[in-house]
Amino acid sequence: MITPLVFLAACANPLEACKQDALKDLRVVQALIADTQATLDRGYAIQTETRTVIYTNFCVGTGVGSNGQFSFCNYPQPYTTKRPVAVDLDQEKRKLRSLKAKEIELKRNSLLNQQRCELEYPAAV
User: Fold this and answer.
1) At what angle do helices 89-120 and 14-42 cross, to 10 degrees?
2) Which residues, 6+ apart, have CB-to-CB distance to 13 below 8 Å?
3) At 9, phi and psi to the nearest 5?
4) Could you report the per-residue pLDDT of 29-86, keeping only the tens digit for each?
5) Cα–Cα distance measured from residue 70 to residue 42, given in angstroms and rounded to the nearest whole number
6) What distance in Å separates the CA atoms of residue 44 and residue 69, rounded to the nearest whole number?
7) N or C: which end of the chain has fewer CB within 10 A?
């Protein structure tokens, strides 16, 4: 499945596409920081589980030899549940410190990469 961001990136000018690419890792780390902080604030994690459930319904046969008769059809549907999970809060605190240190490094790198983008695509400025 192609996400809408892919279409948006395809429409962006080369400078903007380059800048977005320069920020990609930083945004991932910032999302992980937010998730880890939320886990610490709650005192537990939320685990998301997706499984497939088969629903049965009536349908009109359209296949070869079905003669338009009613039959049963199975429809697989994803079903997502969320449940609380115990975590080691000290480990989560260490992870948060590590992610924040990585965020500082990525901010510096992303600024440098954005400046490179501006040098590489000066006509687009």
Assistant:
1) 170
2) 121, 124
3) -65, -35
4) 999 999 999 999 999 999 999 999 998 887 876 655 556 677 778 889 999 999 999 9
5) 51
6) 52
7) N
